Amino acid sequence: MAAVPVDRQRCSWAGSDPLMVAYHDEQWGVPVHDDRLLFEMLLLEGAQAGLSWSTILRRREEYRRVFEGFDPQRLARWGDRQFAAALADPGIIRNRLKVAAAARNARAFLAVAEEHGSFDAWLWKLAGGAPRQGRRRTMGDVPAETPESRALSKELRAKDFTFVGPTICYAFMQAVGMVNDHLATCYRCSELGGR
After folding, report:
1. 53 is a catalytic site residue
2. 35 C-beta neighbours (distance < 10 Å), count
3. What is the assigned CATH class of domain 32-191?
4. Which residue of 8, 95, 101, 170 could cross-link 163, Cys pair, CB 3.0 to 4.6 Å?
5. Which of 13, 26, 40, 45 is catalytic?
6. Would you list the domain boundaries of the chain?
């Protein structure tokens, strides 16, 4: 990631950790239309459940290595050997249910992509084709879930995804730019279309 300016006002969650600041400045809230990156973020947000985002972000490269570069074709073919190897790998959070969800979600992801041409096309159609502008003033104004994240969770569960509850879905929506929840005081808010 590029060097990040320290003199800009950011969302408070970015803190001063260079990795978190770079993620805030370069990725969070930026609309994503690449299926592989959408899949990566969906798996990482599921892995984050019950943990801090910084914990997952610090292990992102290890997740990328263990989860086959977040290639859904490869993950969908995982068997007992790959599952056991992932559970034994100290580079990731070794939660049996979350690791099993990676392969299951890969199969569901591929089914959605096949049915709709791409996961991106399906996802952004649900979002109305454009990011929603949160227009939040304080971190207290940012919800943990919304009617839209509950609807996305319901759709994903119906398509056999797991670790896609409404809170995980809202974090995913924020991460991939379906929602611009940068605070109004944050320099990224206006850069991403907020006022």
Report:
1. yes
2. 19
3. mainly alpha
4. 101
5. 45
6. 32-191
